[in-house]
Amino acid sequence: xxYTHIIWDWNGTLLDDIGASLASVNDMLAMRGKPPIxxxxxxxxxxxxxxxxxxKVFELxxxxxxxxxxxxxxxxxxxxxxxxxxEGAVRAIKTFTELGLKQVVVSSSNYDRIIEDMRKYxxxxxxxxVLGAGDYFAGSKVxxxxxxxxxxxxxSSAVLVVGDLEHDAExxxxxxxxxxxxxxxHEHISRLKAAGVxxxxxxxxxISLVNN
Length: 212
Description:
two-stranded antiparallel ribbon
């Protein structure tokens, strides 16, 4: 087995929540009398830190950014009722646990929000660590991943990062880890291809990749 640790992204990777995110953004646009955006445009604009996304979609110079974040998260929670874990997520987590791999979630999302969702979807307790953000501003998560692996004494070559954003590939590069990106998440496939790492269309492909 090549890997000892799997670093998971949460939103768009283990949790299939692009529908909730897009619906919340469109609610906010409707409040401002603006037309909705579609999933393709959303995926083309999304990025880390999240302010880059809002700069493209809203007129931030006329907005209170803290209010934008508040409204987004309130809408996201409402629409999350229509979402579920990504197909194959439970199988992948279970398979990697049985293989003896340590699994950690490293996310730009708020820690308390992640824990609440993990409890809701029945995967709380499935991970060796959950490293979420202390706020809702979706900044970089690299420092938390670096600190975790340092404490673990993990060899970077034995770490696999699984995500759905270019930022996940950037994080893996900083860690010296391998990376696989899921094409069904938040970022457009054209941008994922530019990251230069293997792409998968579903998490069952990930199981096969790790087993080989």
